Amino acid sequence: MEYLDFELPIKELEDQLDKCQIIGQESDVDVSTTCKQIEKKLEETKRKIYKNLTAWQRVQLSRHPNRPYTLEHITNLTKGTFLELFGDRNFKDDKAMIGGLGQIDGQSYMIIGQQKGINTKMRQFRNFGMANPEGYRKALRLMKMAEKFGIPVLTLVDTPGAYPGLEAEERGQGEAIARNIFEMIRLKTPIITVIIGEGASGGALGIGVGDRVFMLENTWYSVISPESCSSILWRSWEFKEQAADALKLTSFDMKKNKLIDDIIPEPLGGAHYDKETTFKTVEQYVSKAYKELKDLSTTELVSQRMDKYCKMGEFKE
């Protein structure tokens, strides 16, 4: 397990507990009382730390190297039924954007999401989860296929943003994202979106329009990352914590501002501490959302989706 800087008190207590248990196993000394005291203190420390996280600390948790990425979510949600589909039928297959068919709780879904990669080699292969225009066009092709066959769409968002390279701009990055938003808002099949990690800028919005939009507890969703915001406003990354607070990017801020539908709770310490529980909770939210949407006519579905997004940003003086 890797630890973030604010998790170091937890690491120290877990190391103490391991040593205590080893002493008990290798000698005749009764250390059960001591171990219980350490366990109690460890639990109290965890609750104290994780119940008072700052916006920046939640950003750090969303990027935790042990946190489950899109493919891990898909594998566990579909239980081996996932069939990946490739290519945008125009340029090439984008490895940063995963898409295909799979069953969750007996219901078929078209599942689409960004994949970051779990090590240096895989991250390079997946372009660190930053999709090119062909990735968004592949996603749109699969969504249109789902619409044709009446299959609900599930999107899993986890990206630091769309790829900002020159070649991506040459192939129409902005147009591809705008086209996805335009088509998703009027897609005639249910769309369920879950932010499972980072939800940055247009890269997230390109697959983020949904009838139901959920965020895992320790994720963020914003027009810009705290580091980039800090570099623009203060010409330095040193103010990223201040930027994270100002951006109101946490799941709780997003729910308060009515920009998402609900928050999916995570196990104490984050999704990586108990992945199995995380996957089960996500499955429950997805299945519940689909049951609420499945009986709506296409006209009602699209109308409600449009109304939902038209109401965002309304305020009274």
List the helices and strands and how they pair.
Elements: H1 8-26, H2 32-50, H3 55-62, H4 70-78, E1 83-84, E2 97-104, E3 107-114, H5 120-125, H6 133-149, E4 153-159, H7 166-170, H8 173-185, E5 191-200, H9 201-205, E6 212-216, E7 220-222, H10 226-234, H11 240-247, H12 251-256, E8 262-264, H13 275-293, H14 298-310
Parallel strand pairs: 3-4, 4-5, 5-6, 5-7, 6-8
Antiparallel strand pairs: 1-2, 2-3
SSE order in H/E notation? Answer: HHHHEEEHHEHHEHEEHHHEHH
N- to C-terminal separation? 49 Å
pLDDT under 50 segments (min length 5)? none
* Overall 3D form: globular
Largest β-sheet summary = 8 strands, mixed
Helix content: 40-55%
Secondary-structure-derived class: alpha/beta
Q: What does the radius of gyration come to?
A: 21 Å
Count of extended strands: 8
- Proportion of beta-strand residues: 5-15%
Give the overall average pLDDT: 94
SS summary, helix count: 14
Explain this structure.
49% of the residues lie in helices and 15% in strands. α9 links the parallel β5 and β6 (212-216). Strands 1, 2, 3, 4, 5, 6, 7 and 8 form an 8-stranded mixed sheet that branches. The chain is globular, with a radius of gyration of 21 Å. The mean pLDDT is 94. The termini are far apart. α1 runs antiparallel to α2, α3 crosses α11 and α6 packs parallel to α8 (173-185). The chain has helices at 8-26, 32-50, 55-62, 70-78, 120-125, 133-149, 166-170, 173-185, 201-205, 226-234, 240-247, 251-256, 275-293, 298-310, and strands at 83-84, 97-104, 107-114, 153-159, 191-200, 212-216, 220-222, 262-264. It is an alpha/beta fold and 317 residues long. It contains 14 helices and 8 strands.
